[in-house]
């Protein structure tokens, strides 16, 4: 059998990160993804750098493998007709055009495309969704991080709001969009009908509130910055060993707490009424943590991690990015993808972390150069070489 989405065609008229990341996940799952880009400039992320490899930004290269690039001027009537021709024979159309007015102007709104292809899955990605008072506002990852409430609880108390170091709002929206597309394809399999997905960066990022939202709804107490401390589990955080190195200690249950106490020489605390249950330990955190820190000063990080692993107490080394990407376990699992690029040599990127025994994912196309597959795709659509040359002259492609 081939990859799980083999036979599914996706027209991806998005750029930057959320849409392209979603489309790459689906491409890795086997879908045919046709990336629509502006002639001459292409996806804006191609210029987001440094660093660059040759003329391409590493940002663009990281999220655009397994696609074919078609340059198309959708403001030109012929360009729009070409896009319609593609959409008519496709399963999914993705767009992140910012406003409803622009979608209507270019004839790329859901109702227009649904009239042409009733089975089409139409995935819209925007800052705030297509309905609601802020529907036509532009959206950005950093703004979504701020407005979601996440920045107000990230970082150490008193240190000011903290941005997550990667564009997590974009990536989260991309992942949820992929989930939605897969669900819509399954629904179509049952009822034969397509539908629209209305995805927003703001809502996607707010899902990271999870336990904080639950606590707020229950108590009305506004969550604060905890730094590395977990608000509902203790001790569950980075800790420092006697050699000055840090590692992760994850005491996630009362049974694990008792095991930790034995290894750490804190037997007297295992049944101390202040610390017996997790709720006790959270309530009495300020009394608890000095005992833990003092005990961990006895040995170095490596020895502590080995002792605690042997006792089935969760621990982890705090890797640098270089160490994480060179982890032998990660390499054994094939999580680093290597693809040959015709201009840039071997490119490495992170795989989609889905391992399927019967229909494995595929990694067989390098991130395309701008318009690399324009002529190939137009020939597939039935256009003659002279027609394609004429479209070039007119600025359609």
Description:
The protein is an alpha/beta fold and 397 residues long. It has 2 domains: 9-208 and 328-394, Crotonobetainyl-coa:carnitine coa-transferase, domain 1 (Rossmann fold, 3-Layer(aba) Sandwich); 236-318, formyl-coa transferase, domain 3. The protein has helices spanning 18-28, 58-62, 77-88, 100-105, 110-116, 141-147, 150-153, 168-191, 201-206, 210-219, 254-264, 267-270, 278-283, 285-296, 301-310, 321-325, 328-332, 374-380, 385-394; strands at 9-13, 32-37, 52-53, 56-57, 67-71, 92-95, 121-126, 195-200, 236-240, 246-250, 315-317, 336-341, 345-350. Strand 1 (9-13), helix 1 and strand 2 (32-37) form a beta-alpha-beta unit. The chain is elongated and about 85 Å long.
Question: What is the CATH topology of the largest domain?
Answer: Rossmann fold
Distance between the termini: 36 Å
Q: Main sheet: which strands, in order across?
A: 5-2-1-6-7-8
Radius of gyration over C-alpha positions, nearest whole angstrom: 25 Å
Helical amount: 40-55%
Mean pLDDT metric: 96
**What is the multimeric organization of the chains shown?**
single chain
How many alpha or pi helices? Answer: 19
List keywords for this structure.
formyl-coa transferase, domain 3, single chain, Rossmann fold, 41% helix, 397 residues, 6-stranded parallel sheet, alpha/beta
What's the arrangement of secondary structure elements?
Elements: E1 9-13, H1 18-28, E2 32-37, E3 52-53, E4 56-57, H2 58-62, E5 67-71, H3 77-88, E6 92-95, H4 100-105, H5 110-116, E7 121-126, H6 141-147, H7 150-153, H8 168-191, E8 195-200, H9 201-206, H10 210-219, E9 236-240, E10 246-250, H11 254-264, H12 267-270, H13 278-283, H14 285-296, H15 301-310, E11 315-317, H16 321-325, H17 328-332, E12 336-341, E13 345-350, H18 374-380, H19 385-394
Parallel strand pairs: 1-2, 1-6, 2-5, 6-7, 7-8
Antiparallel strand pairs: 3-4, 9-10, 10-11, 12-13
């Amino acid at each position: 059998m081939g990859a799980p989405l083999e036979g599914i065609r996706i027209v991806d008229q998005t750029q930057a990160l959320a849409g392209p990341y979603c489309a790459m996940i689906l491409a890795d799952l086997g879908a045919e993804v046709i990336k629509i880009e502006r002639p001459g400039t292409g996806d804006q992320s191609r210029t987001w750098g440094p660093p660059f490899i040759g003329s391409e930004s590493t940002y663009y290269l990281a999220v655009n493998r397994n696609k074919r690039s078609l340059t198309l001027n959708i403001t030109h009537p012929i360009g729009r007709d070409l896009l319609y021709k593609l959409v008519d024979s496709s399963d999914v159309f993705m767009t992140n055009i910012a406003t409803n007015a622009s979608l209507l102007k270019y004839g790329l709104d859901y109702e227009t495309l649904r009239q042409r292809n009733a089975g089409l899955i139409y995935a819209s990605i925007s800052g705030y969704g297509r309905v609601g008072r802020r529907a036509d506002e532009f959206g950005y990852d950093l703004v979504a991080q701020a407005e979601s409430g996440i920045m107000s609880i990230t970082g150490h108390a008193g240190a000011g709001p903290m941005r997550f170091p990667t564009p997590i709002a974009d990536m989260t929206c991309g992942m949820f969009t992929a989930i939605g597309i897969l669900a819509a394809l399954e629904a179509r399999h049952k009822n034969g009908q397509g539908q629209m997905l209305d995805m927003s960066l703001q809502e996607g990022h707010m899902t990271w509130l999870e336990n904080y939202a639950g606590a707020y709804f229950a108590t009305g107490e506004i969550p604060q910055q905890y730094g590395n401390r977990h608000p509902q589990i203790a001790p569950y955080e980075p800790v420092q060993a006697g050699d000055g190195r840090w590692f992760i200690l994850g005491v996630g249950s009362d049974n694990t707490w008792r095991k930790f106490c034995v290894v750490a020489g804190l037997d007297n605390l295992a049944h101390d009424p202040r610390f017996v249950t997790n709720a006790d330990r959270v309530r009495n955190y300020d009394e608890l943590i000095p005992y833990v820190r003092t005990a961990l000063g006895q040995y170095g990080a490596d020895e502590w991690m080995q002792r605690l692993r042997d006792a089935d107490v969760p621990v982890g080394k705090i890797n640098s990015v270089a160490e994480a990407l060179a982890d032998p376990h990660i390499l054994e699992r094939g999580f680093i993808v290597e693809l040959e690029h015709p201009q840039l040599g071997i490119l490495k990127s992170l795989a989609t972390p889905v391992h399927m025994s019967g229909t494995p994912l595929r990694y067989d196309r390098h991130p395309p150069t701008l318009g690399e597959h324009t002529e190939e795709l137009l020939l597939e659509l039935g256009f003659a070489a002279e027609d394609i040359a004429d479209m070039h002259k007119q600025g359609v492609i």
